[in-house]
Amino acid sequence: MTLDTLVMIGITGMITLSFGLIYFVVFHQRRVFKYHIEKMKAQQEHEQQLQIVTQEAQEQTMSRLASELHDDVGVTLSSVKLFLSKSSNKNPELIQQSQQLLDESIEKIRNLSHQLHPATLQHLGLAIAIQSMLSVIERSGSIRTEFDATTITEKLPEQIELPLFRIVQELLNNLMKHSGLSKISIMMLLQQENSLSIKINHDGIGLDNETYQAEILKKGAIGLKSIYNRLQLLKGTINFEELQSQDFQISITTPLNQ
Amino acid sequence: MYFSIGSTLLPVVTYFFTKSHFKSSKWLLVYLLTSFSFELIILAIDKKIVFLDIRYIIHSCLIFEYLIVSFYFNYQKIFTNHFRNIIPALAIFATIIYLTLILNDKFLRFNTIGCALFCFVIIVYCILGFIKLVKRDIPVFLEQTSFFWTICGFLLFYSGNFFLFIFWAQISPSKLYPTLWFFVHDVLNIIKYIFIAISFTKKQDQ
Predict the structure, then answer these.
(1) Which residue has the higher pLDDT, B81 or B157?
(2) Of B141, B142, B160, which has the smallest distance from its Cβ to A11's Cβ?
């Protein structure tokens, strides 16, 4: 074998080795990538399961607390009120004040109990529950409200009603606290592709999508994080935008067949 | 040969046509311009257009080209901690050996053993680059990264030329030599420049 042939074999060998190395690296990296994606998916699924369990536990606790407040503390306070009304009239003014305080406490407990576990939602559905929430806001006197859910004729599936109610409740709470709004309107729309859309329009100071994304990554912002988590579970989306009328709109869309 | 020299311009043109560049890409551009000038000078001397002492030009251009490639690799973000020290150490070591070789040879001719040494060191850089790319904490699609294409080009070119330089003295008188030079040096040179041009089009650094 001549030296020329040996050199040719050597060169061919080196080039083949280089190609082999490149192929190995690309192939290996693809495998690592696939493994990484599968690991992330498994992690996400696990986190989602954990979230479902946590939220179910949370809802159960809230429901128990609500019934305790309504059935036990509420009844006790009503009994005290009754006893006070039948007591001797040595100091009528004091008794009247006590009765007033008791009325306030009973009202507060009832509201709290409704917030923790809305019976309206359970019995009459999401649309009525949201409408009832808006009527409570309207009663405060400083905010005008509008509600439209004409396309919702049937009760929605239970597994989406409660998370959606909590999302709307959290958004309304945030709007009342931070936006300084004077009017709010909610429109619920059943879309053809078997999804539900809830549009909340308000004239206060609104968020944009970038701020929302930034907030959920920050520490704190528990309310927004809970909205994000619930939407993840529902496979839904949320969009914040400023309209031409300078009002802000929050659109929530979620599929109905979970 | 003319194709091989002309192909240097492909990545240069690509560089100026792509808008976003990484800092390390500038070293590649300097490398390309040096290679292009180097090839033009050699061509001019070969065609007897200019009469210059070829030895000084070859030696200085080779060292310069080699050091630029070392700078390019040293500039990569993935070479951290002890990896970052390996590249300057190898660069200095290979340059000293090359200078020792040409001084002992009294600058008389093209020092192919020194060239083979440079090829070997660049192959080591490429392997280190691959190791670091593969061992990243967050995996990425390698084909989408700029660095991957550059090291593929360098690896193919320098590993092909390694044997050619080692046995240059023995095979250069042979009739097969021009064909071998064309297929190994020129074709791989064109492939290298195509890969570098692709690397300039990639938006992701490593």
Answers:
(1) B157
(2) B160
